[in-house]
Design a protein that fits this description.
The complex is a heterodimer of chains A (368) and B (357).
Chain A lengths: L1 H19 L3 H5 L3 E6 L9 H13 L4 E6 L6 H12 L5 E4 L5 H11 L4 E5 L12 E6 L2 H14 L4 E6 L4 H15 L6 E6 L6 H13 L4 E5 L4 H9 L3 E6 L10 E7 L1 H13 L7 E4 L6 E3 L8 H15 L10 E2 L5 E3 L22 E2 L4
Parallel strand pairs in A: 1-2, 1-3, 3-4, 4-5, 5-11, 6-7, 6-8, 7-15, 8-9, 9-10
Antiparallel strand pairs in A: 10-12, 13-14
Helix pairs in contact in A: 3-10, 4-5, 6-7, 6-11, 8-9
Chain B lengths: L1 H27 L4 H13 L2 H26 L7 H18 L6 H29 L3 H21 L33 H18 L1 H11 L1 H6 L4 H28 L10 H11 L4 H25 L4 H17 L17 H8 L2
Helix pairs in contact in B: 1-2, 1-13, 2-3, 2-12, 3-7, 3-10, 3-11, 3-12, 4-5, 4-6, 4-10, 4-11, 5-6, 5-10, 7-8, 7-12, 8-10, 11-12, 12-13
Classes of the chains: A alpha/beta (368), B mainly alpha (357).
Amino acid sequence: MSQQFNRRDTLKSLAALGAAGLSPLAFAQKPITVGVIYVGPRDDYGYNQAQAEAAAQLKKLPGVKVVEEENVPETAAVQKTMAGMIAQDGATLLFPTSFGYFDPHVLAVAAKYPEVRFAHCGGLWTEGKHPKNAASFFGYIDECQYLNGVIAGHMSKSGKLGFVAAKPIPQVLRNINAFTMGARSVKPDITTSVIFTGDWSMPVKEAEATNSLADQGVDVFTMHVDGPKVIVETAAKRGKMVCGYHASQAKLAPQAYLTGAEWNWLTAYNTFIDAARNGKPHPNFVRGGLKEGFVKMSAYGPAVTDAAKKQADAIKAQMVAGKFDIFKGPLKDNKGKVVIPAGKVFTQTDLELEKMDYLVEGVIGSVA
Amino acid sequence: MPARLANILLTVGALVAALAVFGVFAGFAGVSPVQVWMLLFKGAFGDWFAWQNTLQRAAPLMLTALCVALPARAGLVVIGGEGALVLGGLACAALAQALPLPQNWLGLVLCCAAGAIAGGLWVVLAGTLRQWRGINETISSLLLAYIAIGLFKHLVEGPLRDPASLNKPSTHALAAGLQIGGIAGSDVHWGIVLGVAACAAAALWLHGTTGGFALRVVGGNPRAAQLVGLPATRLVLLACGLGGAAAGLAGAVEVAAVHTAANASLIAGYGYAGILVSFIARHEPIAVVPVAILFGGFGAAGSLLQRRLGLPDASVLVLQGIAFVLILASEALRDRPWRRQPAPAVEAAPVAAVVSP
């Protein structure tokens, strides 16, 4: 309670300063109400938790009020939630964080409230096609999945890695490919077996997939589903190792957890908040990787060897320096077809990578 | 009718009691109950914005509730409305994708009809399995819903996929002329009118026609219905077909008014929420309308409750759960004589006699 009063007092004093025109700084720190919308529960040890952790950080900033709503389906409900945050709570900047919110929901509401800014996570904002007050942000988390792969490649004894994924869509395929390439950079004969569960949150299928992969000899797991909790716990129970995803799952399996690919959404959130509070144009297309601080790695678990840490840290340093490209030719898919010809290099910002529709050599599985 | 009035009062009383219990619950969570009640009202029915919010959430529930209510009047417990809904949405999008439809009300009617037919056939399938193979329709309709969702995903992510829908596999979007807009500039789309009209038509059919009467006879006692020469099987399948058509229509309307294309966002649980609505409405189509609005209100109020008080989403589920349990419990009081009658005093004696030695 006392925290709330403090915040309110700060707000008041800031508003007073701004009104009196005492300092340009006070004007720059115009109070703002920000709405954050989650598709699942805030404590899912995964996608939504990563967003909620950033929102919790926002609450500590002076002059920023955060309103949140969880478990909002990708239906008319999210349109009403956005409109409610604007009309009932006075929000002027919204973070609808689920991929499925963008088209048609964010686009529809953004058209109705041109003075409100919308920053959607995951979408592909396109100049000329989408409203100026809408935006999309995302992180190149495949960099972290590549590093996950490097660690997994060092730690795996069987040479078989497992990837439990939701759907064969570009963002997921990019992670599977990066993870596999990271592992194969350590030992070229490593394979990654992938199982698609069909949807973002399928705890029973995720557990079945983990068990079935463990039965096939997989000894290091990673995943791309909304809540990795079940996979982490199941793998640990089977005595296997795990690389996490979205947020840190180290607490769930301290011994089995090697490292993990985590979002650091605060960087993106701050970009939009700063622009809004300073009256700058809405940044419409925001992307970043390790270098920009959009993603981060979990701390290494106790099992990780020094050799593994050393190699992963070296590659990470190159990535941060902007000297490392994951997707470059020659690259073959797992059917033997050349997908990136020799000499061709895709930098992370390349939109071609956001259309990925193949699994690279070394992945056991199929997109269709 | 005083009896009917008493029954309505009973339901209202149960809801008031649920709100009171929820207030106590909120009190334990450290939130002022009065504030909770005020936000619940403000969020659901407080102003025009709240009403639009509530009505928009209620629209699909009316139609999916009919998918439970109509078969229930024929004596079936069908809980697979979700399957009919997703296939209805899929049929709507698929028809628009397959044929060059006129981009006006006629094309829209055809799309909605495709949705209704697909949903109707799906539930008729469950009815057929029951009538001819003796398979429990509750189980089969639920399992068929899983098959429908599997089929839906297969087609949306495979043959019917718009290649431009990269990270959210969808069918091609409906042309602008085929989409359903808001009523008179509001956010409430025409789906609510369809929902109310369908409920009214179902009520008229059940209570105002011989066909509806025959259906209720079948639901009351199928053996007796057959003895008096009613085509029981045909009536059961008709009820399934109409119920499924309502759910299929709900899916088509969701696609045409909200999503513009069929994709996994359509699978939002409206079919399952409709089961609750229908049971609370005691499978009475006209009662489905206010109950659906109440549930829409719960959703709208829950949204505000989360944002203002930071309560978890589950708190609204708690309120719904309390309301549901109390309404079911109030069934025990239904049709009791209101005036207390002298208790039969004789019964106590023999029991005491047995216990005493």
